[in-house]
Automatic annotation (TrEMBL):
Keywords: Lyase, Metal-binding, Zinc. GO terms for molecular function: carbon-sulfur lyase activity; metal ion binding. It comes from Meristemomyces frigidus. This is CENP-V/GFA domain-containing protein. Residues 6-124 form the CENP-V/GFA domain.
Amino acid sequence: MAPERATATCYCGTVKLEFPAEGDDFVDSFICNCTDCRKITASMFASNFIVKDKAITHLKGEDKLTRYAQSATIATGNTMENSFCSVCGTLMYRRSTGFPGVSIMRIGTVDDFKLHETKLKPKIEQFTKDRVAWFHGGEGVKQVEGNHYAGGK
Ligand SMILES: [Zn+2]
Ligand SMILES: [Zn+2]
């Protein structure tokens, strides 16, 4: 059976992506509390998942994506390119020079909310050292002090 695919849309519906929610092209799902994620989400943490670029289909609005890349606030020093809907501002995915071939998508953009509870539920929570004191993390999620994808520091 082919891996289940799902869709993700921005707040206004201009941009729509399709991606695998399981299988070899679905890499991981994680929460990040790093200071960069605070700024980029305008919240206290990000809830993300990682899929291979080649498995993502842009169903509509690819030409409406605004790309913004910088490295100044990224803990690893890699350059992170962010792709936003130019109409409503939703961040759809990020791509890092440190992790070529994969995109970091946002759980909150996924249309089927049931997947937020199941296949997309975060497995890792990283940068707990930067987490706000009043939040104690995702239930049953493995806690990592630093960057899980760079050895946990
Ligand atoms: Zn939009
Ligand atoms: Zn982060």
